[in-house]
Fold this protein.
Amino acid sequence: DWTMAAFKDQAIAKIRQQVGKGKVICGLSGGVDSSVVAALIHEAIGDQLTCVYVDHGLMRLGESEQVVSVFRDRFNINLVHKDASDLFLGRLAGMTDPEQKRKTIGGLFIDVFEEEAKRIGGADFLAQGTLYPDVIESVSFIGGPSVTIKSHHNVGGLPERMNMKLVEPLRELFKDEVRELGRELGLPDEMVGRHPFPGPGLAIRIPGQEITRDKLEILKKADAIYLEEIRNAGLYDAIWQAFTVLLPVRTVGVMGDSRSYDYACALRAVTSTDGMTADFYPFDMAFLGRVANRIINECKGINRVTYDVTSKPPGTIEWE
Ligand code: XMP
């Protein structure tokens, strides 16, 4: 009978056979898939693997530090942590259009990754966290709908451009199986169970307005409070994705004896099985009130909190 431990052993044997004495490079994003790929390949070939974490400065609070501490310190994986936030934020300055943001971030990401790969002397193989649904989707999309709602960035053209072969050890797995494999490999629970996070990161959670370091700081703090309350209430695993959106509107409020004029934010939480359709999560009002109070009290810059009750369709999960 089929167990994840057996799958792991087979996958490791396959990786060793494919790679031989070659060098492998893996782009880490902090997400479940790339984390599991990195841990698995490291178990198979150790120091023949180098991971590159391109830090665009648009991650959630504390997440970059966690990636580095888990992979470099705990797993002892060769890890390049490239802080490219100045480059990304510089290029995004003044930009407000969602598609332009996505294309800019996706393009820069590939440039920085390629540069770091060259710096370590290149590699023979590129590791990718392609899952079974991705394999099916790319086939079924041939001749499929040509309407792009949002251009999801990926590293599609990279292997050819860099003349590398692909290592894709998760190609036969579904998401829940990837999580199980991650646990089998000893990855921390909060990494294995993490909600999906978009490649362009917090850039698309500051919609319709210019992205600045100040706004990112405010958003990160509000988002961390929201997620902490969700975890404390034991709701994290029942929710597909939850996050805060910093809105491009300032509203009037009262703070003590004086008038405030600060940003409004929206809380989003949805249930879903694949991200294609989604329902808003039916929190109770007391929970929402508690989160709103904490955000307004603890996040300088926000004085109003709303809850998004839009399902997908007609809405999308992200706001842009
Ligand atoms: P939407 O907003 O289209 O999101 O309902 C569906 C899922 O995709 C994620 N998402 C992205 N992921 N690059 C990504 O890697 C992107 O540009 C992007 N846009 C949305 C979103 O977080 C949700 O899980």
